[in-house]
Amino acid sequence: MPGWIPKKFPGKVAEPMIPFYAAGLIVLYAVNAGANAYMASDEYKDDPRNPNLKPQAKTP
Asked: What is the pTM of this model?
């Protein structure tokens, strides 16, 4: 093996990170739920930037 390739580190990487992965998923779920709640609220449901806003039929 060439000298510039480091030796394998004999430690676990993914297993100690499991609580952080779980916390990240929980935070992502909470942010998504909050954003969905804001989009559905009365204050923002008619905002033109809302992706859930249905296009209005144009009357001539």
From this structure: 0.65
3-state SS string for 26-47: HHHHHHHHHHHHHHHCCCCCCC
Alpha-carbon torsion (16, 20, 26, 28), positive or negative: negative
Structure tokens at 43: 């204050």
Q: 52: closest CA among 60, 2, 44?
A: 44
Structure tokens at 38: 């804001």
| pLDDT score, position 6 | 74
CA-based nearest residue to 36, from 57, 54, 52, 19: 52
Q: First vs last Cα of the chain: how many Å apart?
A: 76
Residue type present at position 45:
K
Two tokens, residue 31? 């942010």
